[in-house]
Structures are given as C-alpha cells and as structure tokens.
Amino acid sequence: ATTVLLTCLLPTGAFGQQVVLLDFDSGTDGSINYTASMRDDIQAMMTGFYAPWNHSFVQSTPTSGDFSTITFNSGGDGGLAQQIDLRNLDHNDTAVINVSGFTELATEADIVSGSAIIGAHELGHLFGLRHHDSFGPIGSGVNPQVGGSPWLPDFLGPQNADETFDHIMASPASV
Predict the structure, then answer these.
(1) CB under 8 Å to 109, separation ≥6 — which residues?
(2) What's residue 171's pLDDT?
(3) CB atoms within 10 A of CB 134
(4) pTM for the complete prediction?
(5) In the chain, which ranges are E strands?
(6) What pLDDT is stored for residue 8 in this prediction?
(7) How many CB atoms are closer than 10 A to CB 120?
C-alpha cells in the first residue's frame, strides 16, 4: 500500500477551486476497460489523495469554467503531464496515463490503484510539483536509502527523508 504524502508541499486552499475531469473514454492507446465501478474507485482514491485542498474530480465534461483533464488509456506506458505548472496558474492543462503495459497490475484492484496513483502523480505536476519534492520536508535531508555519497562532495547533512519512496511525487526514475 502506498502512503500518499502531499501535505508539506501544497498549502491548503492556496490555489482556489480546481476542477479535474477524469476522462476514461477518449484515450485510444491503452487497452484497459474501465468499468463504472473502477472509474468510481479511481475518482474516490484521487479525491482522498487531494482531500486537504479545494479540488473536485468529475467524470463528465464541465459545461462551464476552467478544468484540467486527465485522460486514461492515452500516451505511452506510465503518465505524462503537459507541464509542471508552478503555482497552478493554468487551470486548463492536461495529463495522460496508460497502465496497459504494466503486467504487474494483474488484478482489477491493482489497475485501479495504479491508475489512481499515476493520475495523482501527474496531477501533482499540473499543480507545480516535481519529483524531487518527494524527498521530504525542507531540512529533513536525503532519503537514508540513497545516502549522501551520490553527491560530490558527499552530502554530510541530515538523512531523514524517510517518506520519499511512499510519496505520490516519487518516480521510479528519480528515486
């Protein structure tokens, strides 16, 4: 189970209302058939991940106002955000996710969880978060599993950023 830790990164209410469309129908690159219950579970998980902030997740295109879109079954394996939108100034940006190629997602529950986590990760980019934001609160140093030796000179400061591998902004490529 992945623990989602975002509270140190996004101030509560800092960005105003953000509507996010979860688009399960227009992506054509993947092969996952998201049933109504899978869609609802993904929406519930993403709502939970972002509960402290003023965001709403919808499955039907809003008829007015700004909204960002996450398109499922789209793009290459994994996810890709249109941009890293520092301070979330663009409320009309997009991200794509595609878990079809992940053979380790063998059950419906795995697909739901993987889709929600990757969707939440890419949404974090649309809010301005970067992979290295998963390293922990300012002052906690680096993750002890990484240690200080990958840097030149060696990092001799704190190594207490234990949350890195469980953070929604962690990426296999970066941590």
Answers:
(1) none
(2) 72
(3) 25
(4) 0.80
(5) 18-23, 55-58, 68-72, 78-81, 94-98
(6) 43
(7) 25
Residue 80's nearest CA partner among 68, 101, 56, 98 is: 98
| The pLDDT of residue 37 | 98
Q: Which of 127, 123, 132 is nearest to 161 (CA)?
A: 132
Instruction: Name residue 120's amino acid.
Output: A
Q: What's the confidence (pLDDT) of residue 129?
A: 84
B/e letters for 71-86, b = 16+ CB within 10 Å, e = fewer, are bbbbbeebbebbeebe
* Tokens representing residue 154 in the block: 């060696």
Q: Is the dihedral of CA 162, 167, 172, 175 positive or negative?
A: negative
Tell me which residues of the chain have a pLDDT lower than 50.
Answer: 1-5, 7-9, 11-14
Measured in residues, the chain has a length of 175
Q: Where are the beta strands (DSSP E) in 18-133?
A: 18-23, 55-58, 68-72, 78-81, 94-98
pLDDT, residue 83, reads: 94
Region for residue 13 given its phi and psi (left: phi exceeds 0; alpha: psi -120 to 50; beta: otherwise): left
Phi and psi at residue 57, in whole multiples of 5°?
A: -110, 130
CB atoms within 10 A of CB 1: 5
